[in-house]
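Hi there,

I know you've been waiting on this one. I reran it after we fixed the sequence typo, so this is the corrected version. Both the input and the resulting structure follow.
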Amino acid sequence: MDYICSDYNQYNMTLLKKGDKAPAFRGITQEGKPLSLEDFAGRKLILYFYPKDNTPGCTAEACDLNNNYDVWLQRGYDVVGVSPDSTASHLKFIAKYGLRFNLISDPEHLIMDQYGTWGEKKLYGKPYMGVLRTTFLIDEKGIIEEVFTRVDTKNHTIQIEETLNL
């Protein structure tokens, strides 16, 4: 199912919402291996979309999720990040910060288009196309449990825990 990015994106909103079926995706990890939503059948998933490896906000978000990775695994969640960066960039990012989860390279924005996370943004009043930082919590049956469009990059784990009352 494809979603068309339009005006709603300038407000950092996605068409997908809590209770919707998560769109099936298939991407390539940092190691060049295929990874799909199907691979997480029967497991929960934190699927987060971020703009760029090695930038302050994206590094803070990745490190927060990584520092709490064991907690997420204990709660039955896996973690996967998606950005338009190359697999080589992802490998360096993972090595630099010791990330323990997969990152998907989506340079053509195919997965981002499905999830409504590629759209118009503004910088100094000028519009441009980019990644709308968004996190989806997906349950064992592939249903979206929660959508975060205003991500607190430094405290994303706490943000998720508070929303889920964990």
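Quick highlight: Residues 1-13 have pLDDT under 50 and may be disordered.

Best,
R. S.
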